[in-house]
Amino acid sequence: MRIVIAHCTVDYAGRLSSHLPEAKRLLMVKADGSVSIHADDRAYKPLNWMSPPCVLKESERDEDGRVIWTVTNKAGERLVITLQDVELDASHELGVDPGLQKDGVEAHLQELLAEQIETLGSGWTLVRREYPTAIGPVDIMARDSDGAHVAVEIKRRGEIDGVEQLTRYLELLNRDPLLAPVRGVFAAQEIKPQARTLAADRGIECAVLDYEVLRGMDDPSSRLF
Amino acid sequence: MRIVIAHCTVDYAGRLSSHLPEAKRLLMVKADGSVSIHADDRAYKPLNWMSPPCVLKESERDEDGRVIWTVTNKAGERLVITLQDVELDASHELGVDPGLQKDGVEAHLQELLAEQIETLGSGWTLVRREYPTAIGPVDIMARDSDGAHVAVEIKRRGEIDGVEQLTRYLELLNRDPLLAPVRGVFAAQEIKPQARTLAADRGIECAVLDYEVLRGMDDPSSRLF
DNA sequence: ATCTCCATGTCGTGC
DNA sequence: GCACGACGTGGAGAT
């Protein structure tokens, strides 16, 4: 990884056009060739960048001490950086990162809820996770205590688009006489009021999931029986 | 801005839990207090981060030469970084950035299309941009050559959620007897097949916009009259 | 503070 | 390769 701190101007032409007036900034060149330009605020987002795969060409220093970096990719996007007054230019070998281990995302919720489908209703049974349909997989397909099918859409945060998604699935599933009528359950750790209202309007039930409880139930050390 | 290159392990507990095993990484502390941790690949995304506003507390060096950074925010999210073998620790004053100037985003498309609404149909007239409704503004409200209202949703890339959005607007607008019937046009630089299919199913027309042409038409230097 | 929607979204995954 | 959905989405603007 190469870290440069310098005054620079930047022009990007690609999916849009953009320009950065001259200012002192951080330039980061990574081992995969990618380049990003950071200001002194916002942890996450660089002001400008080029994602890999891409190629950086560095010009000779001109009579005013300027250097031009031209970063291009296959799609014809182009990032041109003009540097001057370089304060820092450091290269460090970082090696391959072992990567981030995550816990608590939607996949976990789905796993836990599938194992404990009775959380949603007594006597309910799991048909399968990722139940395939023509327009994509339903997170969980289950049957209620009467044997009727229930399509469950799981979100970490339940918002309107999740309800729309489930609505599309239900519309399709209910066209299948072997399945219809299919009930819908919108399950999330948190459900926004607007989503709850829309769900009610569509005849979709809502269920708020408690990740800690689901995980606790799943944790053998916490089981009483 | 403070740049540190060091071996570190990272634990995050907040919206999810995550862990980074020990490896050499770049740590960036910005003037707004935000912290991000970068590996040597992917230009855009840090492995881990804490967005401002947040507070960084740095421990004393322990007997093994380790330092612990604890970054917390108001919401109770917590990022704990254990550093050792610090290779670089550099601070640079960057100042406030003048910011990015953009050209070619949805706002521009909307502006240009509003000026040239006849692109969508001969004899069409603009009612207004950002036409207000109870559930949010419609990008463009127009009238066709028969005087019928047309709601136009503009996207850079037309996907399903854009069609859903327009559908919600149309549902609402068509309840107003002073407006109904309201036609819908889904306009984008590129429309995904699934979105096109859904739009057709909902009786919504699609229009592919050419940004260069719209801009060219708007550019006084290119006008012939 | 909350809600909404855009984004050069990025990133993984399944086809 | 394309398409779809999740993301600690982030970030900006309006209510």
Number of domains of chain A: 2
Secondary-structure arrangement, i.e. CATH architecture of the largest domain in chain A:
3-Layer(aba) Sandwich
Distance between the termini of chain A: 53 Å
Helix and strand composition category of chain A: alpha+beta
Strand order of the largest sheet of chain A: 4-3-2-1-7-6-5
Name the poorly predicted regions of chain A.
220-225
Q: Which percent range describes the beta-strand content of chain A?
A: 35-45%
**Helix count from the secondary structure assignment of chain A:** 4
How would you name the oligomeric state of the polypeptide chains in this document?
Answer: homodimer
Largest interface: A-B, 57 and 56 residues
Written as H for each helix and E for each strand, in order along the chain, the element string of chain A is EEEEEEEEHEEEHEHEH
Estimate percent helicity of chain A.
10-25%
The total count of strands of chain A amounts to 13
CATH topology of the largest domain in chain A: Trna Endonuclease, Chain: A, domain 1
Report on the structure:
The structure is a homodimer of 225-residue chains. Chain A has 225 residues and is an alpha+beta fold. Chain A has 2 domains: 90 residues, Protein Yojf, Chain: A; 117 residues, Trna Endonuclease, Chain: A, domain 1 (3-Layer(aba) Sandwich). Chain A has 4 helices and 13 strands. In chain A, the strands form 2 sheets. In chain A, strands 4-3-2-1-7-6-5 form a 7-stranded antiparallel β-sheet, with no helix packed on it. In chain A, helix 2 packs parallel to helix 3. The termini of chain A are far apart. In chain A, 30% of the residues are buried. The interface between A and B is large, with 57 and 56 residues. Strand 8 of chain A pairs antiparallel with strand 2 of chain B, so a sheet runs across the interface. Chain B binds a DNA duplex (15 and 15 nucleotides) through strand 11 and helix 2. Chains A, B: Cleaves both 3' and 5' ssDNA extremities of branched DNA structures. Chains A, B: Belongs to the NucS endonuclease family. Chains A, B: This is Endonuclease NucS. Chains A, B: It comes from Catenulispora pinistramenti. Chains A, B: Its EC number is 3.1.-.-.
